[in-house]
Design brief:
Its EC number is 5.4.4.2. One of its GO terms (molecular function) is isochorismate synthase activity. This is Menaquinone-specific isochorismate synthase. With 67 residues, the chain is an alpha+beta fold. The chain has one domain. 25% of the residues lie in helices and 27% in strands. The protein contains one helix and four strands; from the N terminus they run ββββα. A hairpin with a 2-residue loop joins β3 and β4.
Length: 67
């Protein structure tokens, strides 16, 4: 979401979201990769974001994929 004009632009990007359907939930998380980003740190951050979302719908929110 955002706006774009000749003088300026501003955008908002959701880094955590969920799509709820009848009996299914799809969770999404994103990262901002910039010069100097460390892949392992970005992966750990994604794990934390997804764990936060999972904690809302699960008794066992730990993904255990990032070390």
């Amino acid at each position: 979401m955002g706006y774009l004009s000749h003088e300026r632009a501003e955008f908002c990007v959701a880094i955590r979201s969920a799509l709820l359907m009848k009996d299914e939930v799809q969770l999404f998380a994103g990262a901002g990769i910039v010069p100097g980003s460390v892949a392992e740190h970005e992966w750990q951050e994604l794990d934390k974001k997804m764990s936060t979302l999972l904690s809302l719908i699960s008794d066992n929110p730990s993904l255990g994929v990032a070390s």
